[in-house]
Design a protein that fits this description.
Elements lengths: L1 H28 L4 E6 L5 E5 L11 H14 L8 E3 L2 H4 L13 E3 H11 L2 H12 L2 H14 L22 H14 L11 E4 L2 E4 L4 H4 L3 E9 L3 E10 L2 E10 L2 H25 L17 H7 L9 E3 L18 E8 L2 H14 L7 E9 L2 E11 L1 H13 L5 E4 L4
Length: about 400
């Protein structure tokens, strides 16, 4: 009996050692790995592995570059049509790039998709020099902004993510940045779902296959340098719940994406379980609403559609409305965009209304339309006269918000 007990203990000890050895081997096989998944609304961490371990951000750095660019646009320092000079330093940046030449000028509206779709290093340097004077100075500005966001383990040295031993971050910090990009600049989030763009006659296609291959993913960014492995930050929404995921150190882009998909599946399963256990506690917050379609994309595709009744919403007291409700069948309107869910359309229209607090006689209208066999919800400010609509759209455009002046049927 004693021998049997000892044999059993020895066997258990062997299995325990074998398991520890296996885990150690996995860590040794991929020491760059880190990941985190969190609920974007509540901030609850649903999964974390090496989430606070020091890692290289690679091109996920460009998310902060874009944050700084969006912030400058919000402050009125830049617009989509601002032309930024290309220096010799910027033009010398290695692949990946869009082959900018010293002396060129690059508009902000071209820089944004170039950073997201192409992950262009030369464009990152152009933005850095336009905002910071030099790329090194811009890196210090990025670091300061990161600290203000409570990204306490992040240091930036350049705007692109090209190799630099001093440029480090964590999966948790990048998740914080992802959430802040959406919450602070919902009007620009739609750019992160862009799958291609054309510059000087050449079309570039996104490396972010998560958007194409995982239902509910509507944006964020990929990155790779040899020291980091394959990184990705991903945002996905399902049943009104938005998750943010970061995977770092993937050995291939395919394995990284497969792992991210698995983490998101598990995250959504957990939120479903929470919703069943406590419906009120698990209810999605209403303060994180992002757009996924630009008005230009929608207008190019728009054909005669079957129109559902408009959903009209009175705005706040700072944005006066007529006492008599109008329909979006008459007069002129400012079209803000078309979105996948009505909540997104209302939030986008409300944002436009807040920016036009002194405009009278306008209402928010959200109507259901069908475009290219897809049901979308179109956001407009309606009840305007022609001059009001044109002036309002011009003001929104100067603030970086895409819009379109529309003469409604029956006018």
């Amino acid at each position: 009996m004693f021998a049997v007990r000892n044999a059993g203990k020895a066997g258990f000890l062997f299995l325990a050692v074998l398991l520890l050895y296996s885990l150690f081997n996995q860590a040794q096989a991929n020491p760059r790995y880190a990941s985190i998944v969190l609920d974007a609304d509540s901030g609850e961490v649903l999964h974390a592995s090496n989430a606070d371990a020091t890692r290289y951000p690679a091109s996920l750095t460009k998310m902060m570059t874009l944050y700084m660019l969006f912030e400058s646009m919000e402050k009125g320092l830049m617009t989509l049509d601002t032309a930024m000079p290309v220096s010799a330093h910027a033009a010398s940046m290695p692949q990946t790039n869009i082959s900018l030449k010293a002396g060129d000028r690059l508009k902000v509206r071209d820089a944004i998709p170039a950073l997201i779709v192409r992950s262009a290093n030369d464009v990152a340097s152009v933005v850095a020099e336009a905002l910071g004077g030099t790329e090194r100075a811009f890196g210090a500005m990025m670091t300061e902004k990161a600290k203000a966001m409570k990204m306490t383990s992040t240091t930036f040295r350049n705007a692109s993510g090209l190799p630099d031993a001093g440029q480090t971050t964590t999966a948790r910090d990048l998740a914080i940045l992802s959430v802040r990009l959406m919450k602070d600049f919902p009007q620009y989030y739609h750019y992160f779902s862009t799958q291609s763009f054309t510059y000087k006659g050449r079309t570039y296609t996104s490396h972010n296959r998560m958007i194409r291959n995982y239902a509910g993913v509507d944006g964020m960014k990929t990155g790779y340098i040899r020291a980091s492995g394959f990184n990705v930050a991903t945002s996905a929404v399902k049943d009104g719940r938005r998750l943010i995921g970061v995977v770092m150190g993937g050995q291939t882009a395919q394995s990284r994406d497969a792992h991210m998909a698995s983490l998101l599946d598990r995250g959504f399963e957990r939120t479903t379980q929470l919703a069943k256990a406590s419906p009120e506690a698990a209810k999605p917050a209403a303060n994180l609403v992002v757009s996924t379609d630009t008005v230009r994309q929608v207008v190019r595709q728009e054909q005669p559609v079957t129109r559902a009744p408009a959903v009209l919403q009175r705005t706040s007291q700072t944005f006066p409305v007529e006492q008599t409700m109008v329909t979006d069948e008459l007069g002129w309107a400012v079209q803000i965009g078309s979105f996948r869910v009505p909540e997104q359309a209302r939030e986008r229209a409300s944002d436009a209304a807040r920016r036009l607090a002194d405009v009278e006689l306008a209402q928010i209208a959200v109507s259901e339309v069908e475009i290219s066999n897809r049901k979308l919800f179109r956001a407009r400010l309606v009840g305007l006269q022609e001059g009001q609509a044109k002036s309002a759209c011009q003001r929104l455009s100067r603030q970086g918000m895409d819009c379109l002046v529309v003469r409604l049927s029956g006018s």
